[in-house]
Amino acid sequence: MNLTLTWDLFVIVFFAMIVTYSFIIGKHESVKIIVASYVAVVAVQGIGNVLSRLSGTSQTFLTLLGMGRIEISFLAGTKLLLFVAAIIIFAVRGGFEIEFERDHSSLIDLIFTGIFGFATAGLLLSTLLTYVADSAILSLTIGASPVIAGIVKESQLMGIMVEYQDLWFSVPALLLLAAGLIGKERA
């Protein structure tokens, strides 16, 4: 069997791993990961903006500290690491629990868990691509980034991720709303 590593294969494996993990941890924890992801996106984007501002306007301050100008690749890498760390910290030690107030059948719970996993994978991968491109969240120019443009040329699935990033960011939140509306009330 001749297996060639491609970006399409990366996307497929990434989605498969996140969906599988969602089934392992269950529906409630999958929702917790979605919420933690949204909080991490906002926190990391804010920290990245502060670091970028410090790099541009406080050149003398950074030079005095021996840091010089913060390079874009360093900033993108820092955002990636902070994002992953923030999700883990929020999910494991965030001090909040997620529980649906509505009961569903086992089949509907299973379907929701799979859909939550798929949506989470899209949200995470879109966020990672945004940080790699050193772009703002939901920027329409993410595909113009030299790094992303090269990847999109090689991969149809990565092209879909970039082209529909606004959906990948909004679908998990819409699913949370839908899950709250579907089902029967507890007695």
The portion of residues forming beta strands comes to: under 5%
Strand order of the largest sheet: 1-2
User: Would you tell me the overall average pLDDT?
Assistant: 83
Q: Point out poorly predicted stretches.
A: none
Strand elements, count: 2
Number of structural domains:
1
Largest sheet: 2 strands, antiparallel
Described by the principal axes of the CA atoms, the overall outline is globular
**Distance linking N and C termini:** 56 Å
Q: Which structural class do you get from the secondary structure elements? A: mainly alpha
* Oligomer kind: single chain
Order of secondary-structure elements: HHHHEHHHHE
User: What is the share of helical residues?
Assistant: over 70%
What does this structure look like?
It contains eight helices and two strands; from the N terminus they run ααααβααααβ. With 187 residues, it is mostly helical. It has one domain (29-94, 104-177). The protein is globular and about 50 Å long. The model has no long low-confidence stretch (mean pLDDT 83).
